[in-house]
Amino acid sequence: MELVPIAHFHSLFASKFGIPKQSGLVKELDGKIVFEPRFRNADALRGIEGFDFLWLIWEFSANRGKAVSPVVRPPLLGGNTRMGVFATRSPFRPNALGLSSVRLSRVELDTEQGPVLHVLGGDLMDGTPIYDIKPYIVYADSHPEARSGFVDHAAIHRLQVVIPPTFAARLAPDLLIVLRKTLELDPRPHYQNDPLKVYGMPFAGMDIHFRVCNDILTVIEE
C-alpha cells in the first residue's frame, strides 16, 4: 500500500513545539486544509458541509528517526511513566500516523488553491501532510461512557498565563485568545522545570518567548 498526501494542513504553528497535544484542546485554533492539485475536485467534497466534525489521518512529518521502542512516556503522566506505545497517542510510533478530530467551520469550493476546508481545534503543524479525511459520525464514533485508561486519572493541568499588555496589543483579539489557551496547556517538555530557562516557539509568524515559575507562565518581550 502506497500512501500519498491528498492535502496539507496550514496552521499558526511553524514547528511542533507548542502545538496542543490533542485535537480539540484549543477549540478556537484555526487551520485550513489545502488539497494537492490532483485532488482539487469539488465533487470529492460533495456533502461534506453537512458534517460538524471530520477525522484527519496525517503524518508526524517533523519526527526524525525511526521509532523502535515498544514503550513511550506520555506527557500527561509527567513524562516519567512508561506505557505501551499502542496504549497511547504518542507521535513516536512504528508508522508515524496521527488521527485528529476537528470541527469543520466552513467550506470554500472555488479558490485559487482549489477547494479549501477551514477547521477548528487542530493539533497539526503547518505543512503537515494529510492522507485521508473521513466524516465524524455520532452513532458510530461517539462513546460517552467509554473508559479512557490512564487518561481518566490524569487531569489536564493548566498554567496561569501572564502576557504583558504591550505585547498583547501586537496581536489581534482572536489570536490572543488562541495564544493564551495554547500557553495554558504548558508547551514545555514535561521533564523540564527550570524557572530560569527561557523557552521559545513560533506562533502566527512571531517568536514567543516565555518562562514558567510556580505554575505561572510569563511571556517575555524581546
Give an overview of the whole structure:
- With 222 residues, this protein is mostly beta strands.
- The chain folds into 2 domains: 7-61 and 96-141, Elongation Factor Tu (Ef-tu), domain 3 (Beta Barrel); 160-219, no CATH class.
- Helix content is 9%, strand content 30%.
- The protein is built from 3 helices and 12 strands.
- It has a 6-stranded antiparallel beta barrel. It has a 4-stranded mixed sheet with strand order 9-12-11-10, covered by helices on one side.
- The chain starts with 6 loop residues before the first strand and ends with a strand.
In brief, what are we looking at here?
The protein contains three helices and twelve strands, in the order E-E-E-E-E-E-E-E-H-E-H-H-E-E-E. It has helices at residues 138-141, 165-168, 173-184; strands at residues 7-10, 30-35, 53-59, 71-72, 83-84, 97-108, 116-120, 129-135, 160-162, 199-203, 206-213, 216-220. The radius of gyration is 18 Å and the shape is globular.
